[in-house]
Amino acid sequence: MKNYQKKIIFLILFGLFLNIYVIQAQTNNDINIYNWYDKTVGEDNLDINNGIPHTNLYRSVQDNYLYLINQYELGKLSYEGQNYYNVKLKYDIYRDILVLNPSGQPENIGINLTQNKVESFSIQDKNFVKIEKKIETIPEFTTGYYEVSKIAPDFTFYIKHHKDIQKTVSENGILYSFKENSLFFIDLKNNIYLIKGKNDIIKLFPEQKKQINGFYLLNRELKQSDLNQFMKNLMKYISNSLLIQTK
What are phi and psi of 100, to 5 degrees? Predict the structure, then answer.
């Protein structure tokens, strides 16, 4: 009888625990709850550990790689409606594959996460979402992972990270090099636009032409060294300029 009462008390407390979790979503308490659940169930039994083993068959030149970052980074993952915190992730941007290093495993072991089960992930202060192709008039806007920056309520900036591959034959065999070739998109008032250059941005924000030209002039070095960061900074600058203009 005592064991039965203990089970009832446990179920009540567990129910209250889950209710608290639902109410206080996206808080530090949530992270502790998820981590507690993962430890309780057993990290080896989590759904994210089921996938195809990751392989990299490309022997690349030194300091050149097909990943966004050439190492696993602790991040956050939303997978099949479940949030996972402090998981080791690596993003293969050549093949658009998100790779998980299972808990307790050496870093030469990775699992390709099923793309249609991934909803979003974050690594190194970069937030990514999985987007389904919806716009036939913009063939470049394909299904896959996009870095997302919410600039304003009706203004979102997307980066589609990608790397092109080049093969080189040498005395030591075949080597591969990878060069990043990102695509940029703006979602403005629920309309998607491909951004190929400055003229496309000015067409969207003609009243900001002077400010946009000035930004390009003052940030030439950043544009050359880190085009992705240049574009993100530019989007924020345009948004701030629009706010000032409307006041």
Answer: -110, 135
CB atoms within 10 A of CB 184: 23
How, if at all, do strands 118-123 and 82-92 pair?
Answer: unpaired
Which tens digit of pLDDT belongs to each residue from 16-43?
A: 444 444 444 445 555 554 454 455 444 5
Q: Classify strands 97-101 and 82-92 as parallel, antiparallel or unpaired.
A: antiparallel
What's the predicted TM-score (pTM) here? 0.80
Classify residue 30 by its DSSP letter.
H
Contacts of 214 (CB under 8 A, 6+ apart): none
pLDDT in tens, 62-76: 788 999 999 999 999
d(CA 148, CA 161): 11
- At 135, the amino acid letter reads I
Cα–Cα distance between 215 and 46 in angstroms, integer? 47
Phi, psi of 130 (to 5 degrees): -90, 125
The Cα–Cα gap between 169 and 150 comes to 43
Q: What angle do CA 13, 15, 16 make, to 5 degrees?
A: 65
How does strand 97-101 pair with strand 144-152? unpaired
